[in-house]
């Protein structure tokens, strides 16, 4: 069953969304929820098989934990509230609270606590390939960003930091092999741990225009990082007594950096932009140079698990010290002040004077105001200096296909995961967490390998090795069936298109859309025992006797 479509779905935004639907791999069930049809299920299973083989090869053991989970473990870890609206919450008939699992750190920790009591039981690595659930506010891009998705999550449990580093290394190397076998072009980039916690974090990204992640890549060295993890080593400017005194100036109708810079005749980089946000409900100011923007995602990752949101008009009520459009760090009351490292001690700025239509110049950091905490929070721009070598960075889009963390003892502490150590005393276990988006990998492959004719799967994940097309009746059909039988007997996976009533052109178009590595066509020269063999990736076609074609395909 593979019903193809001639037109793109109306709501399709990405190449993978359009082609997976048109080629009959998936169908939308509801917003963010997809049915995997026979062809799609084969590709999904092939990705899972490669993942399984490489996980087994490093000694990880597969389990299958429930997707329907009790509330209590997530309350213990704090993620029942931290996940907010992303959690699917439900009650059973007795009123008990449950959730559909978005990820399983808590449950794996409890499994190991139940099964492992001594250091002799460790190290251990467990994994599962399972359906996960997140209530995305705006599910989009087909299977790339859904509410229900397939994921491989694995967890390592060790009694020492050295053991954790070894488990992390094993997973990292396994991931490289997995993505190479799948045929995915990928980058390993530094990332922030955020709400996951831990001391080390790396992402595996598949470069693609449809990607929702932006990463930096240095053309001069091997530095690569998620934009949220980029840190610039900026030398602080020395505090100087040579700065003129702070001076307030009338600046009517200049609530934006652009209007202010034009009014005073200064570059935007000389101004100090102060963005007001709420961090777990507490108003906080974030200062950055006026020619830069605050990366709210980056800020949120730095402050996780705290919830970061923009202030609203209601937040200004009863706060005369907060004047919209004219906020300055000097004289702020009961407001925590965060700043980008560029706002270094000794630097002088033009900024708001905390009075309407008024700004202040010669506002010096360290003299007129203090920074409570420095964070790299600006949006990274092309040409920013590489933290490693100083060359100008370039930015690219990518799909996140994997993420690995050295979690440490966050969850072991929450659940009291101890084992008896070599000295006969309890030892707190340290953990790693490692995820691969299995269904996302399918979409990423579609994005990277498709061409103007349709999907073009690498052999490792394709739903079949050969797509046999009967381009005609009687003799072509008989030859196509003969070819399909011989190929299957040789151990190849075969897709046979013997649909009646369709023109050869429609069948050939569908074959190219479906994207199996080889297309074998029994058509106009079938009476002579001649078929056409097409390499889907290169597009090369050749007419040759069926026996020779079979020999080519079954070395």
TrEMBL record:
SUPFAM superfamilies: Class II aaRS ABD-related, Class II aaRS and biotin synthetases, YbaK/ProRS associated domain
Assigned keywords, A-Z: Aminoacyl-tRNA synthetase, ATP-binding, Cytoplasm, Ligase, Nucleotide-binding, Protein biosynthesis
Catalytic reaction list: tRNA(Pro) + L-proline + ATP = L-prolyl-tRNA(Pro) + AMP + diphosphate
EC number: 6.1.1.15
Entry keyword tRNA-binding: no
Enzyme class: ligase
Superkingdom assignment: Bacteria
Domain Aminoacyl-transfer RNA synthetases class-II family profile: 42-458
Chief subcellular location: cytoplasm
Localisation: Cytoplasm
GO molecular function terms listed in the Swiss-Prot or TrEMBL record: ligase activity
CDD domains attached to this UniProt entry: ProRS-INS, ProRS_core_prok
InterPro entries in the cross-refs: aa-tRNA-synt_IIb, aa-tRNA-synth_II, aa-tRNA-synth_II/BPL/LPL, Anticodon-bd, Anticodon-bd_dom_sf, Pro-tRNA-ligase_IIa, Pro-tRNA-synth_IIa_bac-type, Pro-tRNA-Synthase_IIa_type1
Assembly, per entry: Homodimer.
Function: Catalyzes the attachment of proline to tRNA(Pro) in a two-step reaction: proline is first activated by ATP to form Pro-AMP and then transferred to the acceptor end of tRNA(Pro). As ProRS can inadvertently accommodate and process non-cognate amino acids such as alanine and cysteine, to avoid such errors it has two additional distinct editing activities against alanine. One activity is designated as 'pretransfer' editing and involves the tRNA(Pro)-independent hydrolysis of activated Ala-AMP.
Family: Belongs to the class-II aminoacyl-tRNA synthetase family. ProS type 1 subfamily.
UniProt note: domains: Consists of three domains: the N-terminal catalytic domain, the editing domain and the C-terminal anticodon-binding domain.
Protein known as: Proline--tRNA ligase
Organism name: Streptomyces nojiriensis
């Amino acid at each position: 069953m593979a019903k193809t479509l001639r037109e793109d779905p109306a709501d399709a935004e990405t190449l993978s969304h359009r082609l997976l639907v048109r080629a009959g791999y998936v169908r939308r069930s509801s917003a963010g929820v997809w049915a995997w049809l026979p062809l799609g299920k084969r590709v999904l299973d092939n990705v899972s098989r490669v993942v399984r083989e490489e996980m087994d090869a490093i000694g990880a053991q597969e389990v299958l934990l429930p997707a329907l989970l009790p509330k209590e473990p997530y309350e213990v870890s704090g993620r029942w509230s931290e996940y907010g609206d992303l959690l699917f919450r439900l009650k059973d008939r007795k009123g008990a609270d449950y959730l559909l699992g978005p990820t399983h750190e808590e449950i794996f920790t409890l499994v190991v606590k139940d099964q492992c009591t001594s250091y002799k039981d460790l190290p251990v690595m467990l994994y599962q390939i399972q359906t996960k659930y997140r209530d995305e506010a705006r599910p989009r891009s087909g299977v790339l960003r859904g509410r229900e998705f397939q994921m491989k999550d694995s967890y390592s449990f060790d009694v020492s930091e050295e053991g954790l580093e070894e488990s992390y290394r094993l997973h990292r190397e396994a991931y490289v092999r997995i993505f190479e076998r799948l045929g995915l072009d990928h980058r390993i980039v530094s990332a922030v741990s955020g709400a996951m916690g831990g001391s080390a974090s790396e992402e595996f990204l598949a470069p693609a225009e449809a990607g929702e992640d932006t990463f930096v890549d240095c053309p001069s060295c091997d530095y690569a990082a998620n934009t949220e993890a980029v840190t610039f080593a900026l030398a602080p400017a020395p505090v100087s007594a040579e700065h003129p005194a702070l001076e307030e100036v009338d600046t009517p109708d200049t609530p934006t950096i652009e209007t202010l810079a034009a009014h005073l005749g200064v570059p935007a980089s000389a101004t100090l932009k102060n963005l007001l946000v709420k961090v777990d409900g507490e108003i906080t100011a974030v200062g950055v140079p006026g020619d830069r923007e605050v990366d709210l995602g980056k800020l949120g990752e730095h402050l996780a698990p705290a919830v970061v949101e923009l202030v609203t008009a209601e937040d200004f009520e009863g706060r005369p010290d907060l004047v919209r459009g004219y906020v300055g760090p000097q004289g702020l009351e009961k407001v925590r002040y965060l700043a980008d490292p560029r706002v270094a001690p000794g630097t002088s700025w033009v900024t708001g004077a905390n009075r309407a239509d008024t700004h202040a110049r010669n506002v010096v950091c360290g003299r007129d105001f203090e920074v409570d905490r420095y964070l790299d929070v600006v949006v990274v721009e092309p040409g920013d200096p590489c933290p490693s070598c100083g060359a100008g960075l370039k930015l690219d889009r990518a799909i996140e296909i994997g993420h690995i963390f050295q979690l440490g003892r966050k969850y072991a502490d929450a659940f009291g995961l101890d084992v008896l150590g070599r000295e006969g005393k309890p030892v707190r276990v340290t953990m790693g967490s490692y995820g691969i988006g299995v269904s996302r990998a399918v979409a990423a492959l579609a994005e990277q390998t498709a061409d103007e004719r349709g999907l073009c799967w690498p052999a490792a994940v394709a739903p079949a090795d050969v797509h046999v097309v009967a381009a005609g009746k009687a003799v072509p059909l008989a030859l196509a069936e003969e070819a399909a039988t011989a190929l299957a007997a040789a151990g190849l996976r075969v897709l046979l298109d013997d649909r009646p009533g369709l023109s050869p052109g429609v069948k050939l178009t569908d074959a190219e859309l479906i994207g199996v590595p080889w297309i074998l066509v029994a058509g106009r020269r079938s009476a002579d025992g001649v078929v056409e063999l097409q390499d889907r990736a290169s597009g090369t076609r050749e007419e040759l006797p069926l026996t020779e074609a079979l020999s080519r395909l079954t070395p």
